[in-house]
Each structure stands twice: as structure tokens, then as C-alpha cells.
Amino acid sequence: MSGLLALGLVSALSASTIHLPLAHDSSQQVALHCVTPAHANGQGVLFVHGASFPTMLAFGFEFAPGDSWMDFMAQQGFLACGLDFVGFGASSHPAAMAHAAADAAPVTRAPEAAREIAVAVDYLRKTRGTGRIHLIAHSWGTIPAATFAAKHPDALASLTLFGPVVPKPGEPTEPVHEAWWTISAEARYQQLRFKHVLPPGLTLLEPAVARRWASEFDASVPHVAGDPPGELRIPAGPAADIDAVASGGGYPYDPAAIAVPVFVVYGDYDTVTDDAGATALLAKFRASPLKWRMRIDHGSHVMHLERNRHSLYRSVNAFIHAAQEMQP
């Protein structure tokens, strides 16, 4: 690709952000970040993030100008959008996030997050005229994504569960009761390295993550006066949902109610999903007309930020095309 063409592509695929009020609480808004394709195919991809960092630190993180997972899908002709759940990124931060953590229940549990997905899907269908929507969810985000899919059986064309949360029998769990928890951006970045999991000397994160990710994460979260320097408040609803699944409490949805193609994809170094858990989870989607499961080698739970991310991008794109071929 020539330099001029590359520059033109980057310009054409720049992201924009809109804010959508919640139907059940107009005082709160969710942010939807979208990359509009130069040559649209009439279909859309909606990304939903995991438990601790928002869309633009995940699917929208640019490793170079115009190089993110959202950009990749837009280059395939999809309207590529990523949702920030309430309490994350550019979305509203509810009052509970500004008060003592013990004063409120965990913020942004899966059922309310599923309602936020519904707001984004409604916008894509009615305002953007998107005929078919493919939902791609990561980690905790797979729980509200599947909850939405079960309650709205005709709203989606496919469902991708990347690194889904699965039960881990025997692992200790800790009930979550508070509204939020804290971590520093640098500490979260160090977790992304998975040094305790990867073989000595193996580094998977892209260099751009080491250079910029922590500072961008720090800038994405409001700092509250009186908190320890560098500490970021993160909604605890996702942690409560993860604990409920891990402790055997099950999912807040019926997998058998989901009748769209389902793809479970994860890395061989994923600490949240493993072969047994992925296989057992996928078997529960009994009404799905197409089920794929793929383990990609040399990938961790944050493979979308790693050197093998294009294997993930292309695998999900291939699944979406297979799902499209099944549509009448």
C-alpha cells in the first residue's frame, strides 16, 4: 500500500464518539465510539469490553494511526463501534462512584449492562440503518452480551465470546459487595504482561502497549480528591458477576435461548478460559445453528493487545462471514 493511500485510509476511518441516554435513566449516558467504513457493507460490529478498562483501551486502542481492531473491521466494510459501559471511559459515572465504596451495591452488573447494549443496538439499527449486527464481547463483557442475546433473539446476526468467563471449580472466590474497587494504571498494565503465566523471556504485548497504555488508562478515569495518588476507581459490578459464575452461581441468562451463531475464542495462555471450560460453555448453546471454538496459540487473556492479535481479528472475521452465509 502506498504512503498516500495509507494516509487516506487513516483519515477516512477516524473514530467518532456519540453519547446515548439510557431509556431507564436519562441522567446517565453511554458512550459509543464508531469507525465508519469507506465502503460500507450495510452491517455492523458492536464491541463490548471487559471488567476493568474501556473500549478505547481495548478494541479501539491504536497501535499505530489507523491500526486497531475497530479499524480492521471497518476496513472489511463494517460499521465498527465499541461501547463504554456506565462507569467506564467516556460514559457517565454514577453518583455511587464518587462516594464511599461501602455505601452502594456493585456498580454496573450484567443485567443493567445488557440494557446498555440494547441502547447501542437500537441506535445502530434505527439511526445508522445497520441491517445486521455482530456482537463481539471480551471477558466479563461476554456475560452481559449473552444476556442481551438471550433476551433479544432477533437483534443479532452473531455472537463472539472472546476469553469468556467460565466456572473454575475449586478456585477460591471472594464475594463482592461494594460499589467500586481501585487499582493504579501501572499495576493494571503489569497484570497485562502475565509474567507469572508466560514462559520466562516470552513477551506477548505489543510495544505500543508498553509505551502508552498505562498513561491512556490513567487519563480515562476521573481522579477523586482524597484518593491515594494514581488510584483509579473501577465499577465493581463486573467483579461481582465474575464471582457469581466462578462460585457456581451460574450465568444470568439461559444459553439455550440464544439462537444465533456463537464463537468461543481464546488464547492458550488465557487464565480465565481453558479448553474444558470453553467446551462446556459452548455446549450449552443448544439452539445455535453454528458453533465454533478456537484456541489460538501464543495468546493470553488480552490477546487483542498482543503480537498475535491479527490472528484473533481474522478468525473472528472468518466466523462472521460464515455466519453471514447462513442468513437467508
Please characterize this protein's 3D structure.
Helix 3 packs across helix 4 and helix 5 runs antiparallel to helix 6. Helices cover 31% and strands 20% of the residues. With 328 residues, the protein is of the alpha/beta class. The chain starts with a helix and ends with a helix. 46% of the residues are buried. The chain is built from nine helices and ten strands. The strands form two sheets. Strands 1-2-4-3-5-6-9-10 form an eight-stranded mixed beta sheet, with helices on both faces. The longest helix has 17 residues. The N terminus is likely disordered.
**Residue windows where pLDDT falls under 50 for at least 5 positions:** 1-12
The share of residues in helices is: 25-40%
- What is the terminal-to-terminal distance? 36 Å
- Inertia-based shape: globular
Structural class: alpha/beta
Defining traits:
two-stranded antiparallel ribbon, 328 residues, 9 helices, 31% helix, alpha/beta, 10 strands, 8-stranded mixed β-sheet
Task: Present the secondary structure layout.
Elements: H1 3-12, E1 15-22, E2 25-35, E3 43-48, H2 69-75, E4 79-84, H3 110-126, E5 132-138, H4 142-151, E6 158-162, E7 180-184, H5 185-192, H6 207-220, E8 231-235, H7 237-246, E9 262-267, H8 275-283, E10 291-296, H9 309-325
Parallel strand pairs: 3-4, 3-5, 5-6, 6-9, 9-10
Antiparallel strand pairs: 1-2, 2-4, 7-8
Helix pairs in contact: 3-4, 5-6
